[in-house]
Amino acid sequence: MSQSAVDVPAKGGFSYDLCKRNDMLIQKGLKAPSFLKTGTTIVGLIFKDGVILGADTRATEGPIVADKNCEKIHYMAPNIYCCGAGTAADTEAVTDMVSSQLRLHRYQTGRDSRVITALTLLKKHLFSYQGHVSAALVLGGVDITGPHLHTIYPHGSTDTLPFATMGSGSLAAMSVFEAKYKEGLTRDEGIKLVAEAICSGIFNDLGSGSNVDICVITKGNKEYLRNYMEPNPRTYVSSNGYSFTKKTEVLRTKITPLKERVEIIEVTGEAMEE
Amino acid sequence: MTFTIPIDNGDSVKNAEADSQRTLYPYVTGTSIVAIKYKDGVLMASDMGGSYGSTLRYKNIERMKAIGKHSLLGASGEISDFQEILRYLDELVLNDNMWDDGNSLGPKEVHNYLTRVMYNRRNKFNPLWNTLVLGGVKKGESYLGMVSMIGVSFEDNHVATGFGNHLARPILRDEWHADLSFEEGVKLLEKCMRVLLYRDRSAINKLQIAKITEEGVTVSQPYSLKTFWEFQAFHNPTAGAQGSW
C-alpha cells in the first residue's frame, strides 16, 4: 500500500470499496444483517386550510414486528413534517439531516422554511445515492406560498399531489382516497378520511398495524396527534395484574436514589475550552 | 415457405418438446374481477380488456360466462386458458345434461371441479394461468368462491382477483354487509371498478356487470364509468414548486 499524503474520500455518493470484501464474506457463509424496514402505510392530503399527514406505527423486521408503536411522522421544520416509509434508518437519518440543513438555512435567511426547499434538499440527496438510500417520503407543510404536499421516491423523483400514499399499504389507503376524496374538505372531514385510509392500510396490509398517528399543519399552527386512534388495543388483559408465586420472599430492600450520585459542577468562566 | 431458426444450444433441441408443453408465462391477460354476494344472489364485475404484455390488444373480451343454469364463471389471467376451461366445463355440463335426471350442477360442484383441475395441473408444473371466480345460486343458497392458478380455493362474501385484491378488497371489507339490495350492490361494485380504473394500468373503461339469482344468469351490456379529473391541484400541480414535476 503506497503512502499517499492526504487520502480524501470522494465527496458525496457511495464508496463501493468494501463491496468485494462483503461478497467474499457472504461466500464464506456470513449472513448479512437484515435491516429494519418500516413496511408502512403513510398518507397525506390537502384540505381547505392546510395539510394533514397520517401514518401507522408498526416497524417490521422481516416477518417480526420490531416496534409496535414507532413514530413515522418526522419533524422537519415548525411548519413542515415528513412521513417516511422504507428502511427505518434511512428515513430517520435523511429527515434528520435535512431538518438540520433547514434550520441552518432559516438562521441564514431569517425566514420560515419553504416546503420546496425541503423537497429539493431531499431529492438531491436521494438521487445522488441512486436509490440505495431506501427512503420513500410523504412531505407536507404550509409555508408563505400556501399548503404543499409532495411524495419523494427512493430514486429521487417527486410528485406534487392533492392526496398521496406510500409504503406497502399504499394501495389499500389509495383505494379509500380515490373513492372518497373531495376538494375543500374541512379539518374534521380531512382527519376522518386520513384515519380511514390508515386504518384501511392497518387492517388490509400485513406490513402495517397498531395505531394511527396524525399531524395537521395549517398556516401558523401545527398539531401532532400522536396515537390519534388506537384500533388495536390489547384484548385480554388479566384483571388480577401480575402476582408472583408466594415462594418469592423479599429478604432486603435497599433503594438508592440516583440523583445523589451525580456531581453537579458549576463552571465559571470559559467552559468547553477544549 | 419455411425458415429455420439456428439453435445454438444442442440441449434445447432435445428439450424443445419438453419445454413447449408447459405454460411458462401468460401472453394475453385479463385484469381483475370483483364479485360480491347480495340479497338475491351474486354480482360480478369485470372490464372487457385483454392485454398483450403492455399493449391493450383486445377491447371486447367477455371474461364472465354462464355455466349451466346456476353458475357464473369469471376469470383473470391468460385468456386462452380461460377458453380451455370453458371447453372443459362445456363437456362437464353436457355430460350432466345427458343423465336427464332433473338434477343439475350447482356452483359448489363446479367450484370443486375447477379446484381439482387447477390443482392437478399445477402439480404437473403446467398450470392454467388463471384466477377464477365462481358465483351462483342454487335452491336459494348463494355461493361465491375463488380458485387461483396454484389451486388455492376458498369461498367468501366478497372476492377479487389480481389488483382487485389490493384496491377493491379494502373497500369491500369496510362497506359490504349482508342483504345489500341490487342497486347498492351495483354502486359498491362500480366504486371498486372506478378505483381500479384509476390505478390499474391494464384496466379499461368498458365494463360488464353480471347478476346471478335463482332465476338465472344475466350479463349486462358493456358500459363505461364516469371519471373525475377536475381537481384543482391537477390543473397546475407545480404552481407552488416551480421547476419540479
UniProtKB/TrEMBL annotation, chain A:
Catalytic activity: Cleavage of peptide bonds with very broad specificity
Name of one Pfam family that matches: Proteasome
CDD domains membership: proteasome_beta_type_7
Location in or out of the cell: Cytoplasm; Nucleus
Signal peptide: none
Alphabetical keyword list: Cytoplasm, Hydrolase, Nucleus, Protease, Proteasome, Threonine protease
GO cellular component: cytoplasm; nucleus; proteasome complex
Assembly mode: Component of the 20S core complex of the 26S proteasome. The 26S proteasome is composed of a core protease (CP), known as the 20S proteasome, capped at one or both ends by the 19S regulatory particle (RP/PA700). The 20S proteasome core is composed of 28 subunits that are arranged in four stacked rings, resulting in a barrel-shaped structure. The two end rings are each formed by seven alpha subunits, and the two central rings are each formed by seven beta subunits. The catalytic chamber with the active sites is on the inside of the barrel. Component of the proteasome complex.
Function of the molecule: Component of the proteasome, a multicatalytic proteinase complex which is characterized by its ability to cleave peptides with Arg, Phe, Tyr, Leu, and Glu adjacent to the leaving group at neutral or slightly basic pH. The proteasome has an ATP-dependent proteolytic activity. The proteasome is a multicatalytic proteinase complex which is characterized by its ability to cleave peptides with Arg, Phe, Tyr, Leu, and Glu adjacent to the leaving group at neutral or slightly basic pH. The proteasome has an ATP-dependent proteolytic activity.
This protein's name: Proteasome subunit beta
UniProtKB/TrEMBL annotation, chain B:
Highest rank taxon of the organism: Eukaryota
Cell compartment(s), UniProt: Cytoplasm; Nucleus
Keywords, alphabetical: Cytoplasm, Nucleus, Proteasome
Protein name (database record): Proteasome subunit beta
Species this chain originates from: Eruca vesicaria subsp. sativa (Garden rocket)
Main location: cytoplasm
Entries under Pfam families matching the protein: Proteasome
One cellular component (GO) term of this entry: proteasome core complex, beta-subunit complex
Keyword Nucleus in record: yes
Similarity comment text for this entry: Belongs to the peptidase T1B family.
General function of this protein: Non-catalytic component of the proteasome.
Quaternary structure and interacting proteins, as annotated: Component of the 20S core complex of the 26S proteasome. The 26S proteasome is composed of a core protease (CP), known as the 20S proteasome, capped at one or both ends by the 19S regulatory particle (RP/PA700). The 20S proteasome core is composed of 28 subunits that are arranged in four stacked rings, resulting in a barrel-shaped structure. The two end rings are each formed by seven alpha subunits, and the two central rings are each formed by seven beta subunits. The catalytic chamber with the active sites is on the inside of the barrel.
